[in-house]
Design goal:
Length: about 120
């Protein structure tokens, strides 16, 4: 089992920045990939960014050029640095951990990001 706890969400003005953090606990050695997804009201959950255990990164189209995912294995933490935020970035952001061996996905409780003036 893997437990994920997100933090760092909040209200920010357009053009501003936020940094989300996700701390993993439990069977962390089994984690293959970690990532961030988001879900806006009335829309499907979508990939924002993911990072593999080897450090390979992949970004959703909405995040390319503005967001950066990183991981600190010593702290069991994945970060999402979000710059140049726009109102369309408003959503609940969820941390995800994928365990390839069991094909299980684990999710955090989500953190609200609101971009508004």
């Amino acid at each position: 089992q893997v437990q994920l706890v997100e933090s760092g969400g909040g209200l920010v003005q357009p053009g501003g920045s936020l940094k989300l953090a996700c701390v993993a606990s439990g069977s962390i050695f089994s984690i293959s990939n970690m990532g961030w997804y988001r879900q806006a009201p009335g829309k499907q959950r979508e990939l924002v960014a993911l990072i593999t255990s080897g450090g390979f990164t992949n970004y959703g189209d909405s995040a390319k050029g503005r967001f950066t995912i990183s991981r600190d294995d010593a702290k069991n933490t994945v970060y999402l640095q979000m710059n140049s935020l726009i109102p369309k970035d408003t959503a609940v952001y969820y941390c995800n951990a994928f365990v390839a061996r069991t094909r299980n996905n684990y999710w955090g409780q989500g953190t609200q990001v609101t971009v508004s003036s």
